[in-house]
Amino acid sequence: xxxxxxxxxxxxxxxxxxxxxxxxxxxxxxxxxxxxxxxxxxxxxxxxxxxxxxxxxxxxxxxxxxxxxxxxxxxxxxxxxxxxxxxxxxxxxxxxxxxxxxxxxxxxxxxx
Length: 112
Description:
By secondary structure, the chain is of the alpha+beta class. About 35% of the residues lie in helices and about 25% in strands.
Protein backbone atom coordinates (compact mmCIF):
# COMPACT_ATOMS: atom_id res chain seq x y z
CA UNK A 1 0.00 0.00 0.00
CA UNK A 2 1.46 3.40 -0.96
CA UNK A 3 2.51 5.82 1.74
CA UNK A 4 0.63 9.06 2.22
CA UNK A 5 2.51 12.02 0.68
CA UNK A 6 2.46 15.06 2.97
CA UNK A 7 3.67 18.38 1.52
CA UNK A 8 5.16 20.97 3.86
CA UNK A 9 4.10 24.60 3.41
CA UNK A 10 7.66 25.37 2.26
CA UNK A 11 7.54 22.61 -0.38
CA UNK A 12 4.19 23.95 -1.63
CA UNK A 13 5.72 27.45 -1.79
CA UNK A 14 8.66 25.98 -3.75
CA UNK A 15 6.21 24.42 -6.25
CA UNK A 16 4.33 27.72 -6.54
CA UNK A 17 7.59 29.60 -7.13
CA UNK A 18 8.63 27.05 -9.76
CA UNK A 19 5.32 27.44 -11.57
CA UNK A 20 5.50 31.23 -11.36
CA UNK A 21 9.08 31.35 -12.63
CA UNK A 22 8.26 29.16 -15.63
CA UNK A 23 4.79 30.51 -16.42
CA UNK A 24 5.19 34.22 -15.71
CA UNK A 25 8.89 35.09 -15.71
CA UNK A 26 9.61 32.89 -18.76
CA UNK A 27 6.18 33.10 -20.40
CA UNK A 28 5.85 29.29 -20.55
CA UNK A 29 2.58 28.43 -18.75
CA UNK A 30 2.21 25.03 -20.40
CA UNK A 31 5.79 24.09 -19.43
CA UNK A 32 5.03 25.25 -15.89
CA UNK A 33 1.92 23.05 -15.75
CA UNK A 34 3.81 20.02 -17.14
CA UNK A 35 6.72 20.49 -14.74
CA UNK A 36 4.62 20.81 -11.60
CA UNK A 37 2.43 17.87 -12.67
CA UNK A 38 5.53 15.75 -13.33
CA UNK A 39 6.88 16.55 -9.85
CA UNK A 40 3.53 15.70 -8.21
CA UNK A 41 3.24 12.48 -10.24
CA UNK A 42 6.82 11.50 -9.36
CA UNK A 43 6.11 11.85 -5.65
CA UNK A 44 2.94 9.78 -6.01
CA UNK A 45 5.11 7.07 -7.60
CA UNK A 46 7.76 7.42 -4.87
CA UNK A 47 5.04 6.79 -2.28
CA UNK A 48 4.82 3.18 -3.46
CA UNK A 49 8.52 2.44 -2.80
CA UNK A 50 9.98 5.45 -0.95
CA UNK A 51 13.15 3.67 0.14
CA UNK A 52 14.07 3.04 -3.50
CA UNK A 53 15.08 6.73 -3.67
CA UNK A 54 18.54 8.18 -3.02
CA UNK A 55 19.58 9.01 0.55
CA UNK A 56 20.97 12.55 0.70
CA UNK A 57 23.92 11.47 2.82
CA UNK A 58 25.06 9.22 -0.04
CA UNK A 59 25.96 12.31 -2.10
CA UNK A 60 27.25 14.67 0.61
CA UNK A 61 28.99 14.39 3.96
CA UNK A 62 25.99 15.41 6.04
CA UNK A 63 24.14 12.84 8.09
CA UNK A 64 20.41 13.25 7.65
CA UNK A 65 17.27 11.24 7.14
CA UNK A 66 16.45 13.10 3.92
CA UNK A 67 16.10 11.29 0.63
CA UNK A 68 15.63 12.83 -2.79
CA UNK A 69 14.52 12.28 -6.37
CA UNK A 70 15.12 14.35 -9.46
CA UNK A 71 12.40 15.40 -11.87
CA UNK A 72 12.78 17.80 -14.81
CA UNK A 73 15.82 19.50 -13.27
CA UNK A 74 14.29 19.83 -9.80
CA UNK A 75 15.25 17.93 -6.68
CA UNK A 76 12.51 16.86 -4.29
CA UNK A 77 13.76 16.36 -0.72
CA UNK A 78 11.69 14.24 1.64
CA UNK A 79 11.72 12.10 4.76
CA UNK A 80 10.15 8.66 5.08
CA UNK A 81 8.26 7.20 8.02
CA UNK A 82 6.39 3.92 8.22
CA UNK A 83 3.24 5.28 6.56
CA UNK A 84 4.12 8.73 5.25
CA UNK A 85 6.46 10.55 2.91
CA UNK A 86 7.03 14.10 4.15
CA UNK A 87 8.09 16.40 1.30
CA UNK A 88 10.18 19.23 2.73
CA UNK A 89 11.58 21.10 -0.30
CA UNK A 90 11.51 21.25 -4.10
CA UNK A 91 14.65 23.00 -5.34
CA UNK A 92 16.31 23.55 -8.68
CA UNK A 93 19.17 21.16 -9.30
CA UNK A 94 21.12 24.21 -10.54
CA UNK A 95 20.78 26.02 -7.21
CA UNK A 96 22.99 25.67 -4.16
CA UNK A 97 20.37 23.30 -2.80
CA UNK A 98 22.46 22.09 0.16
CA UNK A 99 22.87 25.65 1.38
CA UNK A 100 19.10 26.17 1.05
CA UNK A 101 18.28 22.87 2.75
CA UNK A 102 20.55 23.39 5.71
CA UNK A 103 20.12 27.16 6.00
CA UNK A 104 23.82 27.96 5.72
CA UNK A 105 23.88 31.68 4.91
CA UNK A 106 27.32 32.81 6.10
CA UNK A 107 29.21 32.02 2.89
CA UNK A 108 30.94 28.92 4.27
CA UNK A 109 30.75 25.43 2.89
CA UNK A 110 30.12 23.75 6.23
CA UNK A 111 27.95 21.11 4.62
CA UNK A 112 30.97 19.49 2.94
